[in-house]
């Protein structure tokens, strides 16, 4: 009796997705060895290529197990295979990556230290004990060190560090988790720390075990230290010392904007802020964002950390250096550290040593440096948990840990490679080709040369990294935005202008993969309207390619234009003027200590003058109400007045003002003039700011729900999008989303991208792709 011999077959497998720098090739190697397959695996410009030869059933098992058993950081988007003639090859190996080709393989974001590496870091018997650059294929730097693809060591900033024999043995051992870990290093062969003074000169550890422990001691003693991390520098100091935190504020020229904190563990974070299950999950995620959460009463945090804010932004250590620093600081008796961006106010963070010493020399007492170069600077990401209508994390700033993860463009994507340049504030850019879009890291406000250079360098890096040579460049309609001017100066490209609020709507629809039309309540500070006025409180109906403006906020003058943004009392004057009819409004008691009476009269007259531009901005309406209450007559950072007004709210207050919906000029119009008069009267009579703030928030939410329901009925829409920077307000977002659902409609909010202008570039790309279609 004869036994049938299984036929030998060979296949070529193409794996696309996030499969480089995550231990995928070592995983394939081990799987092939287990299944007794011959062939090879390699990285190329598009992802991973596998050629496997063996029995038919073994090949079938390989294909079946590729996805379900992949490493934790791998994301398989597409797996395709084709048969090849068998060659009789013996053994399976990892081949060197070929050079050339058009790159489009996703690059992995920087990932927080895994548990295995953390155990080694804290084990006195391990050769990597207290080594601040410990990593493996499951964690460590990726995006911030990569210079090109395929993701191999020669194309990273680790190329200057030759591995020692023991690291090389790990790198070459298929059974080791550092098999082909590109940033692999140890104290013998890898990057090293150095402690320096304000001028960059070396400073002795002074009896401490190493530079980290010396830094922890200095922080406990009240020093301000510039710490070089994964994507740039932080400015660190102890969080419980009012004098030290105030000194940092004064040196950094950051008057009021809250500082972020770093706590050593979830338990330590829970002593600072109130954490629910979703907040804990966000804090401990591999992205390790800053999480905004309610300040815990009695928390050991100086008032100067987050003045006039009911929340604190807290993150956990995400690199071995941070784990060591927070551990040593706790061992010395410290609690949490302020860990704020290493910059002077309004500048991008410093990320190169000499630049940091020069720019931060008048702020920091010490510098904790290392010699692993950072290729791309990245700020910390920021998230907040909302119940809108179910608990979820929403992104306020998308950067480290998330970038450069790609997003899909709906409807087949873009037939031509494109670049979307984003907005002026909270800028990001986006490159796209086919169905894939890569939204860049948070650049910031394009208000100075350093930030503009960061913007242009970031675009050039992404174009190289993902081999996108734009044929189409997309921009905002505002002619004075630096991002628009950059777009208009690009040669040999097709230009597409996208209205600001349409980009907000399109970004949310594209993120959720929704192709149909929706009603969008898009509330923000400002955006250039198609009628040449300053929009910011818009009710739109549209999809990815087009929109109709069906509603708006009652327009008022913007007295002093940009100055009215920095001085909310001017918006209080403008809204009181609009609400007073022909009469000149009296100077409110809450503003009398802050505003000269004659100047008030001048601004009231300017609020009626055509010389002042019109605005329908909900952001400016919030500014006006805050100023009428005496909250923030002047601001030192964007959104401050609205943030402090939200913080003042009283959850126990049950009242509300009325915002009427009227038909005006063919548009459904929010008319808050009666509410403004009521706010002014309540403030003058001594009504608590908490009550006024709560009534106003409820009025805006109720009016928005009513308007969305009416608009949905008129347009046969079943979906409502809530977006724009004003909807970063948790109280407003939750109340509005709850009301929309109760009205029988489905609601979408931005989650993976910010509701603020950080999502504009993706929305621009989505609109352009929809308009371009197949051409």
Biggest beta-sheet profile: 10 strands, mixed
**Could you estimate the helical fraction of the residues in percent?**
25-40%
Which strand order do you get reading across the main beta sheet?
6-13-7-8-12-9-11-10-14-15
N→C terminal distance:
64 Å
Please report the number of helical segments.
22
The average pLDDT score comes to 94
Q: Return the structural class.
A: alpha/beta
* Rg calc: 28 Å
In percent, how much strand structure appears in the residues?
15-25%
Count of beta strands:
30
Question: Which stretches of 5+ consecutive residues score pLDDT under 50?
Answer: none
Gross geometry: globular
Structure description:
By secondary structure, the protein is of the alpha/beta class. Helices cover 31% and strands 22% of the residues. The chain contains 22 helices and 30 strands. It has a ten-stranded mixed β-sheet, sandwiched between helices. It has a seven-stranded mixed β-sheet with strand order 27-28-24-23-22-29-30, with helices on both faces. A hairpin with a 4-residue loop joins β7 (225-228) and β8. The chain is globular and about 95 Å long. The model has no long low-confidence stretch (mean pLDDT 94).
Name some characteristics of this structure.
775 residues, alpha/beta, 10-stranded mixed beta sheet, 7-stranded mixed beta sheet, 22 helices, globular
């Amino acid at each position: 009796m004869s036994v049938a011999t299984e036929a030998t077959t060979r296949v070529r497998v193409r794996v696309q997705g996030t499969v480089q720098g995550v231990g995928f090739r070592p995983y394939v190697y081990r799987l092939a060895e287990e299944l007794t397959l011959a062939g090879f695996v390699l990285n190329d410009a598009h992802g991973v290529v596998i050629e496997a030869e063996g029995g038919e059933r073994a090949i079938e098992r390989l294909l079946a197990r590729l996805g379900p058993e992949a490493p934790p950081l791998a994301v398989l988007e597409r797996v395709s295979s084709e048969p090849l003639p068998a060659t009789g090859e013996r053994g399976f190996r990892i081949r060197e990556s070929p050079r050339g080709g058009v790159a489009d393989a996703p690059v992995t974001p920087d990932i927080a230290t895994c548990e295995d590496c953390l155990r080694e870091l804290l084990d006195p018997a391990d050769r990597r004990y207290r080594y601040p650059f410990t990593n493996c294929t499951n964690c460590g730097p990726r995006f911030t060190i990569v210079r090109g693809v395929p993701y191999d060591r020669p194309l990273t900033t680790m190329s200057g560090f030759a591995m020692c024999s023991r690291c090389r043995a790990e790198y070459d051992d298929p059974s080791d988790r550092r098999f082909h870990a590109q940033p692999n290093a140890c104290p013998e062969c890898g990057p090293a720390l150095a402690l320096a003074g304000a001028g960059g000169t070396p400073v002795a550890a002074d009896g401490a075990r190493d530079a980290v422990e010396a830094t922890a001691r200095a922080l406990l003693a009240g020093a301000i230290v510039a710490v070089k991390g994964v994507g740039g520098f932080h400015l660190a100091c102890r969080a419980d010392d009012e004098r030290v935190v105030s000194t940092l504020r004064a040196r950094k020229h950051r008057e009021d904007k809250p500082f972020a904190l770093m706590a050593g563990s979830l338990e330590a974070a829970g002593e600072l802020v109130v954490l629910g299950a979703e907040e804990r999950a966000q804090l401990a995620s591999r992205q390790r964002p800053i999480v905004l959460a309610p300040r815990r009463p009695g928390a050991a945090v100086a008032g100067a950390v987050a003045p006039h804010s009911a929340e604190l932004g807290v993150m956990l250590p995400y690199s071995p250096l941070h784990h060591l620093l927070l551990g040593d600081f706790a061992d010395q008796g410290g609690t949490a550290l302020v860990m704020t961006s290493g910059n002077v106010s309004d500048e991008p963070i410093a990320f190169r040593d000499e630049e940091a010493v020069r720019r931060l020399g008048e702020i920091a007492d010490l510098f904790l440096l290392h010699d692993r170069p950072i290729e791309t600077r990245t700020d910390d990401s920021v998230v907040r948990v909302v119940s809108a209508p179910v608990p979820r994390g929403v992104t306020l700033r998308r950067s480290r840990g998330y970038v450069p993860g790609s997003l899909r463009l709906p409807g087949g994507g873009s037939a031509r490679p494109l670049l979307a340049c984003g907005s002026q504030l909270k800028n990001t850019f986006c490159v796209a080709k086919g169905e894939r879009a890569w939204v860049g890291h948070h650049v910031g406000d394009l208000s100075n040369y350093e930030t503009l250079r960061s913007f242009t360098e970031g675009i050039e890096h992404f174009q190289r990294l993902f081999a996108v040579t734009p044929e189409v460049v997309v921009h905002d309609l505002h002619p004075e935005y630096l991002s628009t001017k950059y777009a208009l100066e690009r040669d040999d490209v097709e230009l597409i202008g996208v209205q600001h609020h349409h980009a907000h709507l399109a970004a949310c629809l594209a993120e959720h993969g929704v192709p149909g039309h929706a009603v969008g309540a898009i509330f923000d500070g400002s955006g250039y309207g198609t009628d040449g006025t300053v929009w910011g409180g818009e009710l739109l109906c549209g999809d990815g390619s087009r929109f109709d403006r069906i509603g708006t906020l009652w327009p008022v003058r913007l007295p002093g234009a940009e100055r009215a943004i920095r001085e909310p009392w001017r918006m209080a004057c403008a809204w009181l003027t609009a609400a007073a009819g022909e009469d000149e409004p009296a100077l409110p008691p809450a503003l009398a200590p802050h505003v000269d009476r004659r100047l008030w009269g001048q601004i009231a007259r300017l609020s009626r003058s055509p010389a002042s531009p019109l605005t329908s901005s909900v952001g400016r309406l919030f500014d006006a109400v805050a100023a009428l209450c005496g909250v923030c007559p002047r601001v030192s950072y964007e959104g401050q007045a609205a943030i402090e007004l939200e913080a003042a709210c009283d959850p126990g207050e049950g009242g509300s003002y009325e915002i009427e919906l009227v038909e005006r000029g063919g548009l459904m119009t929010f008319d808050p003039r009666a509410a403004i008069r009521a706010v002014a009267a309540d403030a003058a009579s001594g009504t608590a700011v908490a009550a006024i703030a709560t009534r106003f928030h409820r009025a805006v939410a109720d009016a928005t729900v009513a308007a969305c329901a009416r608009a949905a009925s008129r347009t046969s829409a079943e979906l409502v999008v809530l977006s724009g920077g004003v909807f970063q307000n948790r109280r407003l977002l939750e109340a509005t989303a709850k009301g929309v659902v109760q009205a029988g409609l489905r609601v979408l909010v931005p989650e993976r991208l910010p509701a603020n202008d950080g999502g504009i570039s993706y929305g621009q790309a989505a609109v352009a792709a929809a308009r371009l279609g197949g051409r």
